[in-house]
Amino acid sequence: QGARRLRLDGELRAVLLEAPGRCVPYAVIEGVVRSVKETLSSQFVENCEGVVQRLMLQEHKMVWNRTTHLWNDYEKIIHQRTNTTPFNLVPLEDGASVTVRVMKPLDAAELSLETVYEKFHPSVQSFTDVIGHYISGERPKGIQETEQMLKVGTALTGVGELVLDNTTIKLQPPKQGMQYYLSSMDFDTLLQKQESSVKLWKLLTILFGFATCATLFFLLRKQYRHHRERQHLKQMQDEFRQAQERLMREMNTEGGETLKNACVICLSNTKSCVFLECGHVCSCSECYQALPEPKKCPICRQAISRVVTLYNS
């Protein structure tokens, strides 16, 4: 958005001569593609000339997903070759003599290439091949052959560093970490596309931040509840221990015999149950009934298989 928009006309050289270092760090220039010397010919389309040519072979196959138990599409580039030849941007209107040499076009973040040829070659499979593919978990579908070109005469919008090198005006990747564009879209459309992309990333960042905060909130809330429950349990244990100590002091004052036969849980009733198989005599019948399932001996924590009731004479 902060790029300086310049016209590709006779005044461009004068603008660069007045600029510091004969350089505009981030500029926008629009023109038509024209080769410097020879052009690249399409391998598949007659009378198709360009300055950038990309040949690509892409494998298409189905891969068995062991988790979802479904066949998923899988694509892999198995061969790619890109050829380039030096080219200039010339004015859209005929008659102007000024040109801009485009440097390092393959370094552009967006390089608009037109697909001039595309053909899919399906795989020929025998019955034994099909069985083998099902066993291996991979089913080849075929090979897609594609040729893309930046054709001569294409209207191109270049965004990058514009510099005057002796008598040659060059458009090259900017040195300040900004993006380098060679797009077939006009500048306004390219700017709108980039703004939409920035808005999308901002929205995704906000949503991700909100999801992170919400997750952190629920985790902290869960930890706080666990902390409150532990505090409440500790408080109940302290109160129970204090009540036990108080009852033991009271029973000590009443007599040692009563304390000796008192239930270890309530400390008020007399022991009346023998827990098997451990053999401990430590509880009254009321406290035994109140024990949670599965019932365990309060002394050794062994499971209680059966109970024998004691009758005091």
From TrEMBL:
Topology of this chain in the membrane: Multi-pass membrane protein
Pathway: Protein modification; protein ubiquitination
TM regions (residue ranges): 200-220
Catalyzed chemical reaction(s): S-ubiquitinyl-[E2 ubiquitin-conjugating enzyme]-L-cysteine + [acceptor protein]-L-lysine = [E2 ubiquitin-conjugating enzyme]-L-cysteine + N(6)-ubiquitinyl-[acceptor protein]-L-lysine
Chain segments annotated as coiled-coil in the UniProt record: 226-253
Pfam family, one: GIDE
SUPFAM superfamilies registered for this protein in UniProt: RING/U-box (SSF57850)
GO molecular function: ligase activity; ubiquitin protein ligase activity; zinc ion binding
CDD domains recorded: mRING-HC-C3HC5_MAPL (cd16648)
Enzyme class: transferase
UniProt EC number: 2.3.2.27
Cell compartment(s), UniProt: Mitochondrion outer membrane
Keyword list, A-Z: Coiled coil, Ligase, Membrane, Metal-binding, Mitochondrion, Mitochondrion outer membrane, Transferase, Transmembrane, Transmembrane helix, Ubl conjugation pathway, Zinc, Zinc-finger
SMART domains named among the record's database cross-references: RING
GO term, biological process aspect, one: positive regulation of metabolic process
Listed name of the protein: RING-type E3 ubiquitin transferase
Residue ranges annotated for the RING-type domain, each copy included: 263-301
InterPro entries assigned to the protein according to its UniProt record, in alphabetical order: MDM2_MDM4_MUL1, MUL1-like, Znf_RING, Znf_RING/FYVE/PHD
GO cellular component: mitochondrial outer membrane
Principal location listed in the UniProt entry: mitochondrion
Organism: Chauna torquata (Southern screamer)
